[in-house]
Amino acid sequence: MSTVNAIRDQLRRPLRDLRISVTDQCNFRCTYCMPAEIFGPNFQFMKKEERLTFEEMEQLVRCFARLGVVKVRLTGGEPLLRKDLHLFIERLSKIEQIEDVALTTNGVLLTKYAKLLKTSGLRRVNVSLDAIDDDVFNTINGRAIGVSHILKGIESARNAGLEAKVNMVVKRGMNEEQILPMAAHFKKEGICLRYIEFMDVGNTNEWNPSSVVTKKEILAELSQHFKLTPLKAAYYGEVANRYRYADSNTEVGFIPSVSESFCSNCTRARISAEGKLYTCLFATDGFDLRALLRKGVSDEDLIEIISRIWGKRTDRYSDLRKLSAKKQKKKIEMHYIGG
Ligand code: SAM
Ligand code: SF4
Ligand code: SF4
């Protein structure tokens, strides 16, 4: 357990988690995240030199660790598209205060990399899978990759000794009929499935409140078929509401980001692939850390700057969403900042 006293923001929330988007590119075109009409062949992604190098990211993590961060999650875009990601994981795992390095992936490249990721020090993977039916899955992901390919990836991850969970975004009209089949499949496999409420991240997914299938609705549907026992939060800031199937050891969870927002104990900072620091998923502006890194900033100065930013933090977008019908103008995109 880390002995660092985490810095706190204006709402007394400690800095505990860091999410790093290692690339803005992806091999899927999920309709709600990177719709193919917008992210077509001519879309300009970041150039290689615009992205932070592993050395730069490592320096950041070292500084964040001294401010209280104990968990790092790598995301994207699709993080496994970043060449030699395992070498970065290896470096992160050696940072003393970092207790946990995890990865969020669409699973396409998991079979190829699972063993290497495990030996590099990765502990856990969250695999995103929004349907167990091939037609529904292909309509969502925009690529001709079937469900069995992702299931093999999950199996490879488990065989390699990684803890694997599955995340399913539920959007009305997109995949709500997959709620039960997904539960049945992953219960049988003994894998924790978490249902994520569809959020109004970014500017391209045409979110509206009626497209959100709430935790309450999903729980009501599951409860008609399974007996579920609620579990207590395992740690401060846990975003998932966990349940256990009464007749097995398998858990099922909900991430009710919209209907039961959890800003009051949000301990997460985010860094985009080009090195901007965001203190909320719904932020409009980030702080350019890359400019400082490329001028050779010292760890001490970085720590001072990050503490100042976190110290001023007041973000609680999801709590406020319910109170204000006003639409925020421009937000960052999900593939840019990661989930
Ligand atoms: N490509 C990787 C993947 O899909 O796991 C990592 C990046 S992706 C942006 C991270 C997670 O964000 C995925 O589980 C995805 O389903 C979720 N996500 C994307 N847009 C979302 C939205 N509008 N609401 C809720 N979750 C969303
Ligand atoms: Fe890619 Fe993940 Fe976004 Fe789907 S959700 S388009 S896999 S970044
Ligand atoms: Fe954290 Fe912002 Fe999400 Fe609230 S809306 S939980 S502050 S990331």
TrEMBL record:
PROSITE patterns: MOAA_NIFB_PQQE, RADICAL_SAM. [4Fe-4S] cluster 1 binds at residues 26, 30, 33. GTP binds at residues 19, 73, 104, 165, 268-270. Residues 10-232 form the Radical SAM core domain. The keyword Acyltransferase does not apply. Its EC number is 4.1.99.22. S-adenosyl-L-methionine binds at residues 32, 77, 128, 199. NCBIfam families: moaA. Belongs to the radical SAM superfamily. MoaA family. This is GTP 3',8-cyclase. The gene is moaA.
